[in-house]
Specification:
223 residues; TIM Barrel; 10 helices; 17% strand; globular
Length: 223
């Protein structure tokens, strides 16, 4: 995995535009986050082309019966994602089936096993720390490698879950920037100081007048 913690969220849907954006900021990011919008607007070949040369967080937030999510995991393994996301409240059986499918299919294809990250509560919603911690514990007990949470919950999760879980945090904004649709946000430096491993950052870079300069500024803020 790249040591740069910044994962660029591809908020646009056009693959050619996305690739140009990636090339513009490639010196200042560690990976890419592909979400539902980009996934559904492009075919596998275009997605693979955009991913080329980068660690990838495939953020499709699966939540379905165990068989379906396990099948989805097997289906994306040829793309070699570094991380994939599932909703924690899909239940223990779903998480366990996803982890088993990831392990078995990775062995079959002889590719690295992706890390499974469980969504606690979306950053567009309000949440209690008790709920977040409970979900984090359940996720780690049932095969997840880490959780997705807002930067505000990172200190408590790190304290309660220890150093093993991967903590991926969206809802990242530079000082003075609008929160957009995030209810729970913090700056990149605050999130990393709190114990986050990776930062998902989209609009502060992709919608900036100068995306390359914006990405550089964010990376510089991490010291």
């Amino acid at each position: 995995m790249n040591t740069n913690p910044i994962y660029l969220a591809l908020d646009m849907y056009d693959a050619a535009k996305a690739r140009r954006m990636v090339e513009e900021v490639r010196d200042y990011i560690g990976g890419l986050k592909i979400g539902l919008g980009f996934w559904y607007h492009n075919n596998r070949s275009l997605i693979s082309n955009v991913m080329q040369g980068f660690d990838c967080f495939l953020d499709l937030k699966w939540k379905d019966i165990p068989m379906q999510v396990a099948g989805a995991m097997r289906g994306v393994l040829p793309l070699r994602p570094t991380f994939v996301s599932v909703h924690e409240d899909g239940g223990p059986a779903m998480l366990q089936a996803t982890a088993e499918a990831a392990r078995d299919e990775a062995q079959s294809l002889q590719v690295p096993r992706p890390h499974i990250l469980a969504v606690t509560v979306l950053t567009s919603l309000r949440a209690t720390l008790t709920d977040i911690v409970t979900r984090g514990h359940r996720a780690m007990m049932n095969g997840a490698d880490g959780v997705i949470c807002s930067p505000l919950e990172v200190p408590v999760l790190r304290d309660q879950l220890g150093v093993r879980p991967i903590l991926m945090t969206p809802g990242i904004r530079m000082p003075g920037e609008p929160e957009d649709d995030h209810q729970r946000s913090a700056t990149p430096r605050e999130a990393m100081d709190a114990g986050a491993d990776f930062l998902v950052i989209g609009r502060p870079i992709t919608q900036a007048t100068n995306p390359r300069e914006a990405a550089k500024k964010i990376l510089d803020s991490l010291g």
